[in-house]
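It would be a great kindness if you could assist me with a short task in structural biology. Thank you for your consideration; the sequence and its tokens are set out here.
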Amino acid sequence: MLNNYIAILFFIAIGIAIGFLPIVLGHFLAPYRPYQDKNKPYECGFDAFDDARSKFDVRFYLVAILFIIFDLEVAFLLPWATVINQINWLGFASMLFFLALLIIGFIYEWQKGALEWE
């Protein structure tokens, strides 16, 4: 029974080793020569405007969440589009219902002004 899992444990061990080996080798083999320019934060060639831990506007997170939601919903369209000729009317109707919900949500967000940036 356990013989079946030895190959899986072997591949897990190889994966962990491949993940940690570059980190360990880099830690021991890389030269440590810091200087002032290396330790400065990179900010497109100029000094940072403000502290990196400053709070973002809530609208940034709202737009990010809306993008993720619509991006994931649109990702469901590709498998449906590839099998459109093989599905029956129930599959087609369920996808139209899904698209209708997507459009209703988009119109609601548009009316509430969630997509506008001031």
Notes: The chain has a mean pLDDT of 82. The first helix runs from residue 3 to 29. Helices lie at 3-29, 36-39, 58-75, 77-82, 89-112. The two ends are 63 Å apart (CA to CA).
